[in-house]
Amino acid sequence: MSSPRRIAVIGHRGWASSAILGALAASSASVKVLHQADSDVSGVPPQVTTTLVDFADVPALVEALRDIDIVISLVGPPGVEKQQALVKAIPQTNVQLFSPSDLAARYDGQGLSIPVNKAKLEVENAARSACIPITIVLPGNFAEFALSTPAMGIDLENNKLIHTIDSDKQSLNVCTRSYVAAAYVSIFAETPISQLKDRVIGLSELTFSGDDLAQALHARHGRFPTLFRHSREKVDSEIEAALTQGSPFSLPWYCRKIWGTGQQRTMIGQDIWEVQDFPKASLESLVTQGHVESYRELPSFVQEYFRSTFVDG
């Protein structure tokens, strides 16, 4: 009988990362969380070990990664650049695979002008330059983010919908948090490492167009949603203004745009991973029946900003 896969996780407290950690902890893998001094580990599953690290101390990172097979980073935007310390440490260990934090999609030039996307690519490129085998996981968009917040121009409760460019006809690829967590177990805890090296793996649980969504909203509310439309010129101007101002709203505007142009569905690539024996969500279940889970709580000013965009433009 083979030994359990030994996995180190960096970034354990986030909305998505906590679910992924929980799923890995419940798997056959042996899981360790590497955390900084200011990181609360009280919610870490009891079977998971924890190790305090300082990302500025590469020798300490090397020691923390002793006897680790796979390093999975799930850090949020503020921690993306800190992964460069892992790139320095991993070549000095016996780690066989590194999965940098991504949980999004492959972006074009405009998308890479958004600072967090650029930083993710820089980490990936640095890992490749250091000859570290990597695996990137791309779910496209979280269903809970797309459907439970107004960020993508969808307001389920108030039955409002923005069609951005051609998003009424173009498909959006989404995955629920539980599907992504199950995929991480399937990929990293159950699949031979030799089959994972240097792959960009896409996840696709559900795709739908704006018209599909309008039909689901009609079934939920008994009437079609109030529709708004945004042109390409509108979203491009909003993206560029946000970038100029250093505003975090450049990313959601960009996400609306790539749905509307049809790019988003292709940006997860063609290497699509299927999670066996996991029932996929449906638009009927998530929207019509209202079973979509909440996303992490957004600040009130962010919610207000997104709701202010429900006008024609």
Automatic annotation (TrEMBL):
| Record's keyword terms, sorted | NADP, Oxidoreductase
Lineage: superkingdom: Eukaryota
Gene Ontology MF term list: oxidoreductase activity
Task: Note the InterPro entries from the entry.
Answer: NAD(P)-bd_dom_sf (IPR036291), NmrA-like (IPR008030), NmrA/Isoflavone_reductase-like (IPR051609)
Output the Pfam families linked to this UniProt entry. Answer: NmrA (PF05368)
Indicate the segments forming the NmrA-like domain, all copies. Answer: 6-223
UniProt xrefs under PANTHER family = NMRA-LIKE DOMAIN-CONTAINING PROTEIN-RELATED, NMRA-LIKE FAMILY PROTEIN
Protein name (database record): NmrA-like domain-containing protein
State the organism of origin.
Emericellopsis atlantica
